[in-house]
């Protein structure tokens, strides 16, 4: 089973803006990180799950990693956002590993998630209480 990463969709005003940014890149999208993940070999076949408004909103399959030549690394991604069932996730700096068993399932085409309509603050509070 592949390993995944989580990362904040920094600068994205909405999941739609994140999708537009990803899709604007031909071939691959890139985001940078200071350190190469120690478990990068386990990330083959994995995805980067994006956090927006304290919840996981989608994922982008990871194509690989590459040095930028400036002491940083690119996380190379497929230029698409696969919607996932919304799942509360606290913001963090950098990236964190996400095990396959803990990853939210993908949403099918045209499938809506009832939690998507819920305000992020309310969703976070319900999650904290263990109700969602």
From TrEMBL:
<feature type="region of interest" description="Disordered">
    <location>
        <begin position="95"/>
        <end position="115"/>
    </location>
</feature>
<dbReference type="InterPro" id="IPR008320">
    <property type="entry name" value="UCP032025"/>
</dbReference>
<protein>
    <recommendedName>
        <fullName>DUF1489 family protein</fullName>
    </recommendedName>
</protein>
<dbReference type="Pfam" id="PF07370">
    <property type="entry name" value="DUF1489"/>
</dbReference>
């Amino acid at each position: 089973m592949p390993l995944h990463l989580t990362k904040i969709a920094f600068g994205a005003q909405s999941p739609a803006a994140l999708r537009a940014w990803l899709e604007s890149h031909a071939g691959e999208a890139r985001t940078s990180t200071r350190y190469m993940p120690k478990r990068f070999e386990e990330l083959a076949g994995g995805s980067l799950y994006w956090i927006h408004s304290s919840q996981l909103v989608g994922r982008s399959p990871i194509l690989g990693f590459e040095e930028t030549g400036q002491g940083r690394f690119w996380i190379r991604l497929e230029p698409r956002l696969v919607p996932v069932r919304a799942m509360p996730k606290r913001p963090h700096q950098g990236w964190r590993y996400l095990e396959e068993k803990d990853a939210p399932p993908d949403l099918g085409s045209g499938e809506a998630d009832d939690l998507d309509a819920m305000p992020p603050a309310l969703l976070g509070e319900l999650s904290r209480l263990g109700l969602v």
